[in-house]
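input
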Amino acid sequence: MSLDWIYYAISWILLVWHRAWDAIGVPDTAVLGTNWAWILAIIFLVVTVRVILFPVFVKQIKSQRAMQALQPQVKALQEKHKGDRETLQKEMMELYRKEKANPLMGCLPMFLQIPVFLGLFHVLRRLDPGKSEAGKTLYGWTIGQFESASAAKLFTAPIAGKFGSTAEELAALQANGTTVKIMAGILVLVMMGTTYLTSKQMILKTGWAEDPQQRMIQKLMLYGIPLSLLVSGAIFPIGVIIYWVTNNLFTLAQQQWVLRKFPPPPSVTAAKTGTSGARNPVQPAKTGGLFGRKAAPPAPTKPAAPKVAGPKPGAKPVNPKKGRPAKRQG
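output
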């Protein structure tokens, strides 16, 4: 299956935003070693894609809420079919079908962004000034646009360069190998960190899932993907890493807004705060905020003064007024 339609679509969005920033007055020449018109074009490619996918993201959150609401029933099925994995899976699939909950919906936005990522990867990898005119005008580019993008840099590191660029590739881009490695290495670390934070943010709000499949997906998203980027990041062009980091920052902001608008169901909130009486509730993530900061201890409260019972009717006062002698009996 040809992916040319993706390459045309990505190229069109990039070129539209580049022309827009050029029309606004953002210089196409390097300022502080950076061609900001092309950097902003990549950043707003992210904005364009995320706006298009926003309805899918909301469906993802709703599906996750539905899965969390089913946790008590999932727990009951696990107890009922303990040791019979085949029957358990069949019963759980029937439960999801009946309640219209999709356990794979949580990964859908990420899967839909994969073609965009691959398209940008392919387009930026082609930015070689030594290409023929036919190669430069592929996917709707003009020769001038292609040469401008080929020379575009982020703090003197070309956006088409990567940590693993060969000497021949660096020579074609007229780039310094040390500068490219430093810039690409910093961006890869930022990419790993922001990828981890996007997953941690969601788990902090929703807690760990009881369903083994969902829990495995959560662990993969939290630890597996960031670690894999340490290796795969070496083959990503700098422009692609800029896209990924921007996408992660957009996700952090979007998730914060959506999680406020669509909070976890009461059963999950009760389990996280420990108010639920159910055995083995949904395991909450560590509290203390996105970066693991400890919450401030509650302010100490003064003990209430002991209540003193009032005198019985007709009884003599226990504590007479100071300085006044008690009345003598007689």
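quick obs: Residues 109 and 177 are 35 Å apart (CA to CA).
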